[in-house]
Design brief:
This protein is α+β, with helices and mostly antiparallel strands. It is built from eleven helices and 14 strands.
């Protein structure tokens, strides 16, 4: 090599090619990403609130411990949103799936929504659910993060407040009704007593005149008396006078029943009661209503039952409500309503069933039938408080009120009360 030849410069110590720097940087970024994802997953797993992450192919990427603990469904049970919908929403699963699909069109966070969740052990939880699209794609999929707040206790507390408010309103209404009925009863009873006394007097006069008229009009039964042939009048007059007396008695019975029914039952004394007498009093109160809406109404009461310990007027209020509901459920007057009673020796309970052949109710309606202000009547008949009040009254007497129904198959209201202690002998 000549003196003018130059040697290639040696690489400086500690330097590395650019491609190697880029590779090291990429490896570091991937490591940082994995660490970030791992931290993100740990935060979600340890979060106190239920969290689910699911993708637009319906796969569930993550369900945290809080979600599983509250619902009872492990991550292994929830492979995709179809599994979750089937388990938690039952017959409403498709509605949830359609809603989940809509979430992937979001630009950000969705409005919180209240949802009812059925747990593995059959309980119903009320959740306030919020969802948001995640600013990341994994394997080309969009992902949604859904968080939930369990508001079951809060909702129950709100319902209890409404129940107490409703009881206060009902108490005030019943007190006002008592004052009103007392006044109306006084105004009706006075003329009604005059009608009854008049009918009784006319009946005595007729019986006294009958021999005289028979002698005076012997052989002339076609003679007119008050525009009616005497022979016809002689046949009809006893039944006319009897019907007048009975109608007056019925008016008196209705007024008395209304007065009793309107009394507040908070201080009503508990006593041994023949439930058959309560049924008959309730039917008497509703006689006109029943004849108009349910001519097929009938009683199948057991001839003798043990007494129950309850308040007569409170129990009458329950039966009036159940019979009214049965009448309103009929879509054809030819269909029947049957009120039956029996004694279940095994449980020591007296059972009363009000069964109608009306429209019936779905399972969903049955789940809400005890809720205050829940009604299927569109506000036409009452405020949806009757069943709630009735159930509370029966429970106060130590009994139960259950319903068995299906659409198109009618409804049975099943009231059970324990027999009074020492009521071993039946009431005739």
């Amino acid at each position: 090599m000549g003196p003018s030849a130059r040697r290639a410069p040696r690489p400086q110590t500690g330097s590395s090619p650019a491609w190697m720097d880029r590779r090291i940087g990429a490896l570091g970024a991937r490591k940082a990403l994995r660490e970030s994802q791992s931290r993100f997953r740990r935060v979600i797993e340890d979060a106190a609130m239920p969290i689910m992450i699911h993708a637009d192919d319906r796969s569930i990427e993550l369900v945290n411990r809080a979600w599983s603990d509250l619902t009872g469904y492990s991550a292994e049970c929830l492979r995709n949103t179809v599994d979750w919908a089937r388990l938690a929403y039952g017959e409403h699963a498709q509605k949830y799936l359609d809603e989940a699909k809509r979430l992937f069109t979001l630009a950000g966070r969705d409005e919180p929504q209240e949802r009812k969740i059925r747990t593995k052990d059959g309980r119903v939880l009320v959740w306030m659910v919020s969802s948001a699209i995640l600013d990341r794609r994994r394997e080309g999929k969009k992902t949604i993060i859904t968080t939930a707040v369990d508001i079951t206790e809060r909702v129950a507390a709100e319902r209890e407040v409404l129940r107490q408010q409703r009881l206060l309103v009902q108490s005030e209404k019943m007190a006002a009704l008592g004052v009103l009925v007392a006044g109306v009863a006084h105004e009706i009873n006075n003329p009604n007593h005059a009608v009854r006394m008049g009918a009784t007097l006319i009946s005595r006069i007729w019986n006294s005149l009958l021999p005289i008229l028979d002698e005076a009009l012997a052989g002339e039964h076609d003679s007119l008396v008050g525009g009616i042939e005497y022979g016809e009048l002689r046949k009809r007059m006893p039944s006319l006078l009897k019907s007048m007396t009975e109608a007056s008695g019925h008016i008196d019975s209705i007024v008395r029943s209304l007065t009793d029914y309107s009394r507040a039952d908070e201080g009503e004394a508990m006593e041994e009661i023949d439930i058959g007498k309560v049924v008959k009093a309730s039917v008497d109160l509703l006689r006109g209503y029943i004849e108009r809406l349910a001519p097929g109404f009938r009683l199948e009461l057991a001839p003798s039952l043990p007494t129950v310990r309850a308040g007569f007027h409170g129990l009458e209020q329950v039966l009036v409500n159940l019979i009214q509901n049965a009448c309103q459920a009929l879509d054809d007057p030819a269909k029947e309503i049957v009120v039956s009673s029996s004694f279940e020796e095994a449980s020591g309970r007296v059972r009363l069933v009000v069964r109608d052949e009306g429209r019936g109710m779905s399972r969903e309606v049955l789940e809400h039938i005890r809720d205050p202000f829940f009604t299927t009547k569109g506000g036409r008949e009452g405020l949806g408080l009757g069943i709630t009040i009735s159930a509370e009254i029966v429970e106060k007497f130590g009994g139960s009120l259950e319903f068995d129904s299906a659409p198109g198959m009618g409804t049975s209201a099943i009231l059970e009360l324990p027999m009074a202690s020492g009521a071993g002998e039946s009431v005739a």
